[in-house]
Design goal:
heterodimer, A: about 300 residues, mainly alpha, 12 helices, B: about 280 residues, 10 helices, elongated
């Protein structure tokens, strides 16, 4: 167990290092000269040179990279020219809004997806079952930002029952959270359905039935517990995807989270904030993956080191 | 039932390709020409110059149908180019990694792991933002984020094929590595590669639309479904059609690609065909 966790920890550390490297390459190497971006086109060559010296841009790239790694480890991404102040602090300030949104979307996914999957498994081939299979087929391919806009059109503009943008009320959570959840609803329902069907065909269910247990007890006590294990573990992955998808969905609903901050920063070339945001999201994503693997190992005693 | 859906999907996609290729010749889109008198006309209106606007006009009086037609070309062009470029890159690197193994495999696979460590749309946003808005840059940004998927698929197939008897016998007969890869390993990778490519065409279309929606995709003088949707979002209350119609087109095309891909996968898998 400890060996496994240690190995996964090491892998995760390597992946985070990789993510930081990729972001460094994309943001510090491709855009050209950050000094001329900051000072604008009227700057004299002397001013540019002075700023380059100050920012360490005249050093060779590997030197800049190593220094940059040190800064990132200390969570020092530099100053934001747009927001003023520390870039990382600006990102952390926006984090709760995104986490609230992702958490609420997760609750929605579970509350709708799980019963839907169980229902589909008990009534295979019927309407709900077919609905689940179509939703799982199309859900992930849908342009969710457009679905979100259409939800605003219907529920906010036409029916006027829910707010279409973040106005501080709890109701404002409903539309963005549902938009985030929709692609994964069918997916989770399908997973629950297939898991339940698989469990229902196993020997222990036949034993339970032959003992004379009612169908309800067989289902609620025996089958449900075994279908829960894979569901609990994929929820971590779903949460990671929510935080990533929120980058676009937050833009649709003007949600003041880390995703909309990242997009605004990239559009406005405020690369310190963009980098802090994307590194934070990547660390979350990798951390959740790690958590899922460890949880899976912990929840299912049949898994041994050899099988993973 | 299944084949009926597949036929419907094939029909929709054929229409989409026809519109994307020939549509802009028949209904040219002019991003500059604006008519204040013809702002936000609903679908089915007649413009002040007597022209018919079947899908209405946008906030600057530009024809929505012409925008959707122009957007279909961008969508098809980006999706096909990205999948071809990323597919070829993935094929080459996947073959090398799977066939040779060893340090080459380690390097290619680790780079892939790093890239998949964070969500691909984030990397695409980052790249598109750093490169600046242009059609070429969108293609570069999306191709860079997709090659890993193809490389993984190909590597898996190559890995399982390289130990087979016919590969050994080819080597005994004196075939070189290049010949073995091209003649004996490559054919086993084609099927999974094509399945992955079908899925990726749809996902790439959505990704392009998302980038353009965020203002990081095609430049403003070109119409993309994503940028038209972004325009329409600001006029939802008065002109729902600007955002609704391009999104509907995108959704329909993407779902049809999914349906067709499913049908192709089932048709190509003999084991599944027997069960049915």
């Amino acid at each position: 167990m400890i060996i496994y966790v240690a190995r996964r920890l090491w892998q995760s550390a390597f992946l985070i290092f990789g993510a930081i490297t990729i972001v460094f390459l994309v943001l510090r190497v491709i855009p050209g000269d950050p000094a001329s971006l900051i000072l604008g086109s009227q700057a004299t060559p002397e001013e540019l040179e002075a700023l380059r010296q100050e920012m360490g841009l005249s050093d060779p790239l590997p030197v800049q990279y190593v220094r940059h790694l040190g800064e990132v480890v200390r969570l020092d991404f530099g100053e934001s020219w747009r927001l003023g102040g520390d870039a990382f602090a600006g990102v952390v300030e926006r984090l709760p809004a995104t986490l609230t949104l992702a958490g609420y979307a997760l609750v929605l996914t579970l509350l709708i997806g799980f019963p839907l999957g169980v229902h589909a498994a008990r009534h295979t081939g019927q309407l709900v079952d077919r609905l689940v299979s179509y939703l799982s087929l199309t859900g992930q391919a849908l342009p969710s930002f457009w679905v979100g806009i259409m939800l605003v059109l219907i529920f906010s503009r036409m029916l006027d029952i829910l707010p279409g943008t973040a106005d501080g009320t709890p109701q404002a959570l409903v539309l963005p959270a549902f938009t985030l959840a929709l692609p994964f609803l069918g997916w989770l329902a399908r997973l629950v359905r297939n898991g339940t069907l698989e469990e229902l065909g196993k020997d222990y269910v036949r034993t339970a039935r032959s003992k004379g247990l009612s169908e309800r007890v067989v289902f609620n006590v025996h089958v449900l517990r075994n279908t829960l294990t894979p569901v609990v573990t994929v929820l971590g992955l779903v949460l990671g995807n929510f935080i990533a998808d929120a980058v676009i969905i937050e833009q649709v609903f003007a949600w003041p989270g880390i995703g909309s901050l990242m997009v605004e920063s990239i559009v406005n070339r405020d690369y310190a904030v963009a980098e802090a945001a994307i590194v934070l999201i990547a660390v979350f994503y990798i951390g959740l993956n790690l958590l899922v693997d460890v949880l899976y190992f912990y929840l299912d005693p049949r898994i041994t080191l050899e099988t993973v | 039932m299944k084949s009926k859906a597949a036929r419907f999907a094939a029909g929709v996609l054929a229409l989409f390709v026809l519109v994307a290729v020939f549509g802009p010749l028949l209904i040219p889109y002019d991003s500059v020409s604006t008519g204040v008198a013809d702002r936000l006309l609903p679908p089915g209106s007649t413009r002040s110059d007597g022209a018919f606007a079947p899908l209405g006009t946008d906030q600057l009086g530009r024809d929505v149908l012409a925008q959707v037609v122009a957007g279909s070309r961008v969508s098809l062009l980006v999706a096909v180019t990205v999948v071809v470029v990323a597919g070829l890159l993935g094929l080459a690197l996947g073959l090398l990694a799977g066939y040779y193994g060893g340090w080459l495999d380690t390097i290619i696979s680790r780079i892939g792991d790093m890239q998949l460590a964070f969500p691909s749309i984030l990397l695409a946003i980052l790249l598109a933002g750093a490169l600046g808005p242009s059609l070429t840059n969108v293609i570069i940004a999306l191709a860079v984020t997709r090659w890993v998927i193809f490389a993984r698929v190909v590597r898996g197939s190559a890995l399982s094929t390289r130990g087979r008897e016919f590969v050994d016998s080819a080597r005994v007969m004196g075939a070189g590595d290049l010949r073995i890869m091209a003649r004996y390993i490559y054919p086993s990778c084609v099927q999974p590669l094509l399945v992955a490519a079908t899925v990726q065409v749809g996902l790439t279309m959505v990704a392009e639309a998302a980038l353009s929606f965020l203002g990081l995709g095609v430049p403003i003088d070109q119409a993309s479904w994503g940028s038209t949707i972004a325009n329409g979002r600001d006029y939802l209350a008065s002109a729902w059609w600007i955002a609704a119609i391009p999104g509907l087109a995108l959704t329909l095309v993407v779902i049809c690609i999914g349906l067709l891909g499913d049908a192709a996968r089932e048709g190509a898998d003999p084991a599944k065909a027997v069960v049915r």
